[in-house]
Every structure is written in structure tokens, then in C-alpha cells.
Amino acid sequence: MTPHCHFYLNDREVKTTRPRGLLVLDYLRHHQRMTGTKEGCKEGDCGACGVLIGTLTDGEVRYEAVTACLMPLGELHGKHLVTVEGLNLPALSPVQESIVEEGASQCGFCTPGIVVSLTGAMMAKGSDINQADVKTALSGHLCRCTGYASLLRAGERMIDAAKTLSGGDVAQREHIKTMVAQKMLPAYFLEMPTKLAGILPWQQNGSTKTSPVKFIAGGTDLYVQQGESLPDQQVEILNLYPEMRGVRSENGEIRVGALTSFESFAADPLVQQAIPEIKEYMYLIASLQIRNRATLGGNIVNASPIGDMTILLLAMGSRLILKKGNERRSLPMREFYTGYKQLAKSSDEIVTEIIFPATDRNTRVNYEKVSKRECLDISNVTSGLRITVDQGIIDAVSLSVGGVAPIPLFMTNTCNFLLGKMLKTEVLAEALMIAQAEIAPISDIRGSAHYKRILTRQLIIAHFCKLFPEQFPLEEMLAGLLE
Ligand SMILES: Cc1cc2nc3c(=O)[nH]c(=O)nc-3n(C[C@H](O)[C@H](O)[C@H](O)COP(=O)(O)OP(=O)(O)OC[C@H]3O[C@@H](n4cnc5c(N)ncnc54)[C@H](O)[C@@H]3O)c2cc1C
Ligand code: FES
Ligand code: FES
Known about the structure:
- The protein is α+β, with helices and mostly antiparallel strands.
- The protein folds into 2 domains: about 5-195, Ubiquitin-like (UB roll) (Roll); about 240-480, Uridine Diphospho-n-acetylenolpyruvylglucosamine Reductase, domain 3 (2-Layer Sandwich).
- It has helices at about 25-30, 95-100, 110-125, 130-140, 150-160, 170-180, 190-195, 220-225, 260-265, 270-275, 280, 290, 295-300, 310-315, 410-420, 425-440, 450-465, 475-480, and strands spanning about 5-10, 10-15, 50-55, 60-65, 80, 215, 235, 245-250, 255, 320-325, 325-330, 335-340, 340-345, 350-355, 365-370, 380-390, 395-400, 410.
- Strands 2-1-5-3-4 form a 5-stranded mixed β-sheet. Strands 8-9-14-10-11 form a 5-stranded antiparallel β-sheet.
- Strand 12 and strand 13 (about 340-345) form a beta hairpin.
- One FE2/S2 (inorganic) cluster binds near residues 106, 109, 145 and 146.
């Protein structure tokens, strides 16, 4: 018997044996006839399908905004799915009222998702919510054809309304309690921790191990590429195994579960210590809704030559832990890519962990990305550098460049050249020439090969200007090396 997927949809308990690979969006609209969640692009770009997913963690339910068009139904097991219908109260909520009062309603496709995302931001931040949070929450709602400024004004009004909530380092459940008490959220939210705790974990739910045809992690690549066929396939939903998530430190190394989402990765204090500007890099990568779903493992296995986290993690000198049945092995990430979308792993092996060295006081890390738009766009060329310098000598160096080869490229020759050298302009100039010999960009929709060569050069210079502004002042670089 197929085990049922058991979850809560707004205030209702649901048990379903529909295909686990079915999209949450299709399930809502076609099977539940709940059409408040809209279908726009069906590729994660427009935000029309925005919903909140509540996950029980340490006794409280934490909600995240995600796109229903890239999420498998099977992953809802044990979770709380909140749609725009589930946010309605007898009177308008503060978010709905702010949108009405400021004339900020967008078209019928966009508005429901926006209401959901803004409510999610208020639940997460309470009275600490600010305009930057509002913009981040709106980042996954691409079309603004009916008025961008009015939405920001609605955000201001909503921030005022949130002043009555708690703030500071308070758990989401406290915000939720106050929002319910102040009639900003329906009361059923208060029952969810107890209700979700009553659902058996997937592994004890009568599920039997089958040979999966497809592993699904966040689904943000897979559903864009193969969305139509996944409901008919045998799938393994990796997110039902939460032990593959989270960050910990061990023996001078940072170990990251492959299912860790971009957003959780950037929010982790250990990661922030190792990659000090990680939160800033997130503005360059996808939208909040996608970052809440996209996993590091998915980015690495997808093998896109311009995968942002892939390029960053290559530069961190990462190694991967691969698992098949009870067998585990460790592989340097730079050996994982053997050709365009070709990997040094079998189809039934999964990546369980990514491990990189912790950053000491002599080590610096930088990441650069160039894309047509600054935010929410794929890269033309991207690059990461991790470098350790002691008394002016390069003790360790790890440089990666994306978008200039069929694989995410670790710059072995350039690194070998830099190792043991003095940190000075002449050395950088020679390294730039070696780097040019190491890349093989092609002309495509993201730019000509010549343009990508120039970008590679500029991004490597940018690393050194940012990390060592005394030795490599930007003005001098502009006048000299950059000519
Ligand atoms: C709107 C939008 C914007 C995006 N913007 C960016 C961006 O700015 N930068 C960027 O780099 N990417 C971006 N992406 C692409 C995507 O979000 C990332 O590549 C993401 O990391 C994929 O992870 P996932 O967990 O969703 O993978 P999935 O789609 O679940 O899986 C991708 C592939 O990896 C396999 N897989 C996943 N996890 C594992 C594992 N642990 N072991 C073995 N195999 C596994 C799957 O079988 C599948 O073949 C964007 C996508 C969308 C839809
Ligand atoms: S339908 Fe556009 S993001 Fe889902
Ligand atoms: S398509 Fe909805 S506001 Fe533009």
C-alpha cells in the first residue's frame, strides 16, 4: 500500500496518496480546487504561487515563504501548508489593509502571493521588520507593472502595524501568538505545534524503500527542467530525511548537510565566521522564496558551470561526502566534475555533506558575480577566492571561476603559481596571464568569449582589491593592471 502523505492545509488535516512528485501548486488548484494560489510562470520567477510552509522545529513551527510551483507534494508530510485563503480573517489583516489603503493591489495573479510573502515576513520578524525585510520578501515577485512605489508604501504601513508585536531575539511562536491575539492571523495557527507533533515521521509511516528514479531536494532545478514528468516517476524526497541538514564544526572543519538551504547556510554563525560576507552574497542569488528551497547539494549535483554556491564552495576548498547504501566516501569537490554535467558519482549515490576548513585570522574569502541584472539573475561570470597570507607570503590559495568552461572551474594552474609567492602586483599580473590560459569560455547568450575573458580578469583583480586594499588600492589597479 502506498503510504499516505499527512499534513495540514490551513486549518484542515489532509491525508493523501496522490503521487509524491505532484507539484503542490497543481495539487492545490486541481485536486483541492483552491485557486487563490495562482499559476504564473511555473518556474519560480514570478511569485504568483507563493505559500508558507511551516516546519516543526524544537517544539515550534517556523514558517518560510516558498513557491508552490517547485515543491513536491510528498515533502508536505508532517508540515503546515498555508495558502492565501488560510490568512483570511473576518476583517482585513494588516497586510491586506496596507495594500488596499496604499492602492498597492497588483494584478489578480500577483496580489495573493504578495500577501502571503509579506505576512510571512511579519511572522518572522515581528516588530523588528524594516523596509529591507519588505524588499527581501518581495524579491521573488517579479512583475511590478501596476505599481512598485505603492507596494513600498504598503510596506511602511505594515511596519507601523507591526510595532505592537514583540521584537528582538524572540522565537517566531511569540510573534504568532501576539498576531493571533491582535487578530492579525487566524487562531488555528496556535494549534499547529501540537497537531504537527502528532504526525508520525515519514520513515515510520508505512513507507517502504523503493529504488528511486529521481532524487528531489529543493526541486528548484529539477521541476524547471522536468516538471511535467516527475509526478509519474518514482521519486525519493530527500527533505524527508532532515539528518542531512544543518551546519556543525568538527576538528577545524565546517561540515554542512547537503540539504541545507542557501538561506539557512547564510544565516548560520559558523558559516558567517568562515565566509564573513555570506549574507551580502545572498542578495545576488535568486529570491528569498527560492533560497528557502534551493539546497547546496542540489546546486553542486546540478553541475551548472555558473552555480553560485558551487563556485563559492569550490573556492572554499571543499570536499564532498558521497553515500550509497551503507558505503561512504570522501572526494575533493574539484575532482567531482569530469565534463559538461558529468560527475564522478554513480546515479544512485547521494551527496550527504560538504566539508571545508574553518577560516583562521590569516585567511580571507571573497566572492564576485557579474550578471545582466544585479539581483535575481544568472551569472555571466562568477568567481570565488580563499587565500591565506602569512607575512606577505601566500600560504594557501583556492580560486574558482564559473561560466568560462564546461564545468565549474577550479583554477589549478593559477593556484599552483600563486602558492608560496609574495603578495604583490607583479605576481598578480603574471597570475592573470596564467588564468587566461586556463579558461576556455564560449560565446553564448550570456556574452561573447572575449567579454568573459575580460570579466575573469576583472573579477580576479576585484578579489585582491577587496581583500588586500593596502597592497592593491583600487585607484592604482584601475590606472595600471586594469588598463
Ligand atoms: C527562479 C530561480 C532562480 C534561481 N537563481 C539561481 C541563482 O541565482 N544561482 C544559482 O546558483 N542557482 C539558481 N537557481 C537554480 C537552483 O535554485 C539551484 O541550482 C539550487 O541549488 C538547486 O538545488 P535544489 O535543492 O533545488 O535541487 P533539485 O532541483 O532538487 O535537484 C537538482 C539535481 O540535483 C540532484 N540532487 C539534489 N540533491 C542531491 C543530493 N544531495 N545528492 C545527489 N543528488 C542530488 C537531483 O536529483 C537533481 O538532479 C535558480 C532557480 C530558480 C527556479
Ligand atoms: S508560478 Fe511563478 S513562481 Fe510559481
Ligand atoms: S503581472 Fe501581475 S502585476 Fe504585473
